């Protein structure tokens, strides 16, 4: 599984779990529960999911080093040269 998919799914699941717990067991308004879930999810993922975050960063660095072709940028560069 690609690192960005894995890390994103972990973050979404963590947010959803915290939000569900807050919505079911506290009288907090939904907007406040969402903000709290986002902050808790961020803190937990920062502390406990460092290996996954490092894998994600490495995959981004490798991709940038390879210089993968971006068709949109090539088209924009070609249009800029013709102007």
TrEMBL record:
Keywords: Membrane, Transmembrane, Transmembrane helix. It holds the Pfam family DUF4229. The keyword Membrane applies. The lineage of its organism: Bacteria, Bacillati, Actinomycetota, Actinomycetes, Micrococcales. This is Uncharacterized protein DUF4229. The keyword Transmembrane helix applies. The chain crosses the membrane at residues 7-25, 31-49. It comes from Glaciihabitans tibetensis.
């Amino acid at each position: 599984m690609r690192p960005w998919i894995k890390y994103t799914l972990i973050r979404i699941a963590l947010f959803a779990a915290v939000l569900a717990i807050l919505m079911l067991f506290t009288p907090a308004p939904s907007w406040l529960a969402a903000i709290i879930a986002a902050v808790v999810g961020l803190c937990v993922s920062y502390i406990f999911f460092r290996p996954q975050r490092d894998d994600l960063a490495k995959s981004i660095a490798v991709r940038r080093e390879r210089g993968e072709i971006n068709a949109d940028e090539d088209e924009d560069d070609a249009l800029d040269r013709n102007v």
